[in-house]
C-alpha cells in the first residue's frame, strides 16, 4: 500500500482507532485485527519513534522487581518473555546474564540464589547456575566485583524497534491500517460527551481528517496524559529518562550480559552484547525537556554510565572516546512522588472513559498483556469479536535472524538478494537487502527512519554511518522516489539529529 492509499482510508468509520505506534499501540493493533475488528493506528512521528526504540533491549522478567516486591510485574514479565522467545524466535533471543558475587559475599550469594529460584519457578524451568571465579574468567573479561564467582541465568533480548515493526506487520496482514507521521490533535465527542473519534493531521502535508470510530485506544506511552487532559484529567504520569552508551565489542568482548551496580549509589545496571556491540545502561532521572524534542543524554548521565563500566572492568580502560553512540528514552511511569525514581512501580496503568481506553506504563516485555487488558476494557464499546488468523506459510530453511525480523515476509526479503546471497552492511549484522525492503515496503519517509529504526546502523557505526551514506544513496534513493534535493535535505536533517541526540559528544557537551 502506498502512503496515498493509506491516507485515503482514514475517512472511513473504524471499530478501533489506536493512537501511538510504539510497542503498546502495535500490540493493541495486532490483537484488535486478530479479533476481527477494523483497526486504524496513527503515529505522530515514525513507528517506534518514542520510547520503544530507546529501551534497554531486554525481554526480561526483571529480577530487581522481585527484590523490590513487585512480584506481579515480574510474574507477567517472565510469562511474556517465555511467550515472545517462542513467538518471535530469531528476533527475541535468549540472553545469558551473569551476576557477580562480591568479596565476602556469602549472604549476597544466598540471597541471589533465592531470588533466582523464584525467577526460575515463575518460568517453570531452571536456568540458574553458580559459576566459580576460576571458571568465570573464561566467560568474561576480568571483573573487579566477581572475586567470589557469579550466578548465571537466562533472560531475553531483542531489537525493540524491529519488534514494533514485526507486530505491526502481523496486524496489517489481517487487514489493519497503520499510518506514520499522522498526529492526533484532538478527540471528537458526540452529543453526550462520549469520545467518538479523533481529529488527525498529516505532519508531512498538513492535511487533516476527522476520523470516526467506536472506541479510541490511547497507547501514547509517556504522552498519554495529553489526550486525557482533553477530557479534563490532571497529569498523572512521571517522565523518567534513561540513557545508554554503545561501545565497540572489541573494547569489551563480552559473550554474556552482566548485571552490575554503580560503584557509589549501588543502583542496578547492566552491560549487554547487542547487535555486535556492547550496550551499557541505564540511568533513571526526571526528564524536564518538552516531549516534542528528541530526548538526549545529559553529560552527567554519560559520566555515571562510564563510572560504572570503568569500576567493573578496570583493565579494559574504557573512556568517552570509545563510545560509538548514545541513546535516551523516556519511561511512562505513574507518579506516586517517590524520591528515588527507580522505586516508582513499572506496572501498567489502565484508565477507562466513555469511548476511550488509555493504557500506559508497563514494559516492552509486557506489551501483549497490556494490549489484551486494553482490548478487554474496550469490548463494551464493540460488537462481539470474530477472530481471524493469517494463512500460515512454510518458512523452512531460512536464517533465524531473517525469519525473526520479517516473519512471513522473510522469503520476499531474501528474494531481493542476487546469486551471492544477502550482503552484510559494513561490520554489522544487517543486510543491504533490508534497506531495499524497508525503502519499498516499510513506510520510510525520512532517512532517520531507515538508519535508526528499520535498521539500527545509525547507532552501530561511527558518526551514525556517515561513511556509508553514498552507498545507501546508491541503493535506496530511486526506490524511495527521492530527488537529489530531497536526498540532500534528508542527509542534512539526519546528521543534525544524530549530532543533537545520539552523538558521543553528548558526554562532554556543556549546554
Ligand atoms: C531507558 C529505558 C530502558 C528500558 N528498558 C526496557 C527493557 O530493557 N525491557 C523492557 O521490557 N522495557 C524497557 N523499558 C520500558 C519500555 O521501553 C516502554 O515501557 C515501552 O517502550 C513503552 O511503549 P509504548 O508503546 O507504551 O510507548 P512509546 O514507545 O513511547 O509509544 C508511544 C507513541 O505514541 C506516539 N504519540 C504520542 N502522542 C501522539 C499523538 N497525539 N498522535 C499520534 N501518536 C502519538 C509517540 O510518538 C510514540 O511513538 C525501558 C524504558 C526506558 C526509557
Descriptive report:
By secondary structure, this protein is an alpha+beta fold. It folds into three domains: 3-51 and 161-236 and 345-381, FAD/NAD(P)-binding domain (3-Layer(bba) Sandwich), CATH 3.50.50.60; 90-156 and 238-334, D-Amino Acid Oxidase, Chain A, domain 2; 400-507, Helicase, Ruva Protein, domain 3, CATH 1.10.8.870. Helix content is 34%, strand content 22%. It has 17 helices and 18 strands. The strands form two sheets. Strands 3, 4, 5, 6, 11, 12, 13, 14, 15 and 16 form a ten-stranded mixed beta sheet that branches. Strands 1, 2, 7, 8, 9, 10, 17 and 18 form an eight-stranded mixed beta sheet that branches. Strand 13 and strand 14 (277-281) form a beta hairpin. Helix 2 packs parallel to helix 7 and helix 2 packs across helix 10 (367-378). The chain is globular.
Tally of separate domains: 3
Give the number of helices: 17
CATH class of the largest domain: Alpha Beta
Helix content: 25-40%
Largest sheet: number of strands, sense, barrel closure: 10 strands, mixed
> How large is the share of residues in beta strands?
15-25%
Mean pLDDT: 93
Name the CATH superfamily assignment of the largest domain.
Answer: D-Amino Acid Oxidase, subunit A, domain 2
User: Would you tell me which CATH topology of the largest domain applies?
Assistant: D-Amino Acid Oxidase, Chain A, domain 2
Tell me the structural class: alpha+beta
Q: What small ligands are held by the chains?
A: flavin-adenine dinucleotide
Radius of gyration: 23 Å
Low-confidence stretches: none
- Gross geometry: globular
N- to C-terminal separation?
43 Å
Number of E strands: 18
**Which architecture of the largest domain does the CATH hierarchy give at level 2?**
2-Layer Sandwich
